Amino acid sequence: MPLASPTSPAPGGHLSAYLLAAGFMALIAALSLTIRENYPFSHFPMYGNPNSRPVDYYFLTDGTGQPLPVAALTGETAPRIKKRMLTQEFKFVKDHHLKDRTAIPPENIAAIRSRVLSSFVTQARSRGTPLPAEIQLWKGLIHQHDQGYSESFEQEAAVSTAAPSTP
User: Fold this and answer.
1) What gap in Å lies between CA 106 and CA 157, rounded to an integer?
2) What does the alpha-carbon distance between residue 105 and residue 110 come to, in Å, rounded to a whole number?
3) Least CB-packed of 51, 72, 105, 128 within 10 Å?
4) How far apart are CA 78 and CA 57, in angstroms?
5) Environment class of residue 89 by beta-carbon count within 10 Å: exposed (0-12), middle (13-18) or buried (19+)?
6) Is residue 145 part of a domain?
7) Which of 4-18, 36-50, 63-77, 140-154 has the lowest mean pLDDT?
8) Does a structural domain hold residue 43?
9) Three-class SS of residue 104?
10) Residue 95 to residue 97: CA distance in whole angstroms
11) Which residues are registered as beta bridge partners of 149?
């Protein structure tokens, strides 16, 4: 009978390693199915890290305040509005060596909002989407109270979509 070399696995070593790995994966799968998406075992921050601050979201409306279908106008979903604004705000913070976004002056926040809204208008135009005469950017806030929840809205920016006149 040949002797086992120092580099060869012990007889049945691979099989026991595979069985151990399979058993561990089965345990993790069973644990995941049992726990599900329950606080604090969630990878969704809104569930895994709740806070009492208002939750914000953004949407577009026409000049009368009627919500617009962002995806149909621009080809992108409404959450991209906030992502674009955050990207611009973080860039501003970096470029101006500020501590964080709360240090951005209000007039610069307004300029960022207008720039982002204008980028969505430009995107809609490039798709050939008909636009209302004015598009507004609104922020919705969901507030948590002892009595439940409430919602408030703030207009952040507005742009005219009329084609610029040439002199």
Assistant:
1) 12
2) 9
3) 128
4) 9
5) buried
6) yes
7) 36-50
8) no
9) coil
10) 6
11) 144
